[in-house]
Amino acid sequence: MSSDRIVQELRWDPVLGEWVMVSNVRELRPWHPEGFCPFCPGTPETGHGWDVLILNNKYPILSEEPPKLRPHKFFKNAPSYGKNYIVVETPKHDLDDLSDLTVEEIRKVITYVIDKYIEELSDKRSVYFLYFRNKGKEVGVSLTHPHSQIYVLPFIPTKVRRELTNALNHFKRYGRCLFCDLIDAEVSDKERIILKSSHWIAFIPYYAHWPFEVHIYPLKHINTLNQVNEVMAEDLAYVLKKVLCGVKNIFENPMPYTMVLHQAPMRGHYSYYHLHIEIYGMYRTSGRLKYAAGVESGAGNFTYDDTPEEAASILRDTIERKCVIQ
Ligand SMILES: [Zn+2]
Ligand SMILES: [Zn+2]
Ligand SMILES: [Zn+2]
C-alpha cells in the first residue's frame, strides 16, 4: 500500500456482525540478516538467564495507544486498543515444537501465561485474553524458535461469542453446562477419547471440523485461566506434551496446527462457560493440507473426509508408538 497514513483500527462488518482488525503497521517490518532470531537469548530485548519470556510484539495489530480514528459516514469503526505478546517458550532455538520441551518446561510456559492473564485483568479496557499457537510454515509461521502468542482484545472473538450464546441457551433449557454434558457424551461413547488424566480429558469431538482436531477440557467446570491451579497446570503440561507429540508424528512430515485457548471474557458473568483448548491439525494425508476453501470460507461449513472416530484411533495409535513420557 502506498498511503503514508497509519491505519490501526477495528472495522465492523455489518453483514456478518463481526469485527475485522485492520492495521498497516506490520508492513514496516524491518529486514533481518539471514539466520538472525529475535527470540534467542542475548539480543537487547531478550537478554540472558530466562526459561520463558513474554515479549511485546514489535509489529502489533493492536495498540495501547491506537491512532486517531477517521470516522465514516456509513460504516462503524473503533479504536483497536489492545496488546500483542509473544511467549518465547524456551531459550533453545532448535527445538521444533512445544511437545519437545519437558513436562516441567511446558508447565512453566502455562504458569507464565496464567500469570500474564492475572496481570491483564487489572486493565479495565481489556475484554478478552486470547492465547494461541501456530505451528508450521504452512500456517504462516516464519520464525521457527518455539513460541506462542497472546492477543488482549477489546472485544469478544466471534467464535467465542457463538459458543457463549449456545452455552447460555443450553443452560437456560437444561440447567446444565453444555460442555460438561458433551464431555459426558464423549466419555460414554469412548471411541473418540485420546487420553484422560486426573484433571483433563482430550478427545476428537463428534463434530470435528479439521482433520485432526483435538479438544482438551478440564474435568472440573472452570471458566477462566486463573482457576487453573498448580496441580491442574502440571497435569495439563503432561496432556499437552502427549497430545501435541501425537499430532506432530501422525505423518512423516510434522503436522502443521493451530492451538487456541477458549475461556470466558475477562469481565461479566459467564459461569455457564467451560474453559477448553482446541487444536486443529491440518494435514489430511502426509504433506496434504486441508484448506479452508470454497465450502469452508464461502459457506462457513466444513466438510470432513473420513470420520472423527477413525482420526481418533490413528492419533491414539501414534501416541502409543511414538510418545512415551518417562
Ligand atoms: Zn532463536
Ligand atoms: Zn462445564
Ligand atoms: Zn471452543
TrEMBL record:
Residues the entry annotates as binding Zn(2+): 37, 40, 93, 145
GO molecular function: UDP-glucose:hexose-1-phosphate uridylyltransferase activity; zinc ion binding
GO biological process, any: galactose catabolic process via UDP-galactose, Leloir pathway
SUPFAM superfamilies documented for this protein: HIT-like
Signal peptide region: none
Residue numbers annotated as active site: 147
Pfam families (UniProt xref): GalP_UDP_tr_C, GalP_UDP_transf
Domain Galactose-1-phosphate uridyl transferase N-terminal: 5-157
Superkingdom of this protein's organism: Archaea
Recorded GO CC terms: cytoplasm
Keyword Metal-binding in annotation: yes
Domain Galactose-1-phosphate uridyl transferase C-terminal: start-end pairs: 170-316
Coiled coil segments of this chain: none
Keywords, comma-separated and alphabetical: Carbohydrate metabolism, Metal-binding, Nucleotidyltransferase, Transferase, Zinc
NCBIfam families noted in UniProt: galT_1
Name of this chain's protein: Galactose-1-phosphate uridylyltransferase
Species assigned in the record: Zestosphaera tikiterensis
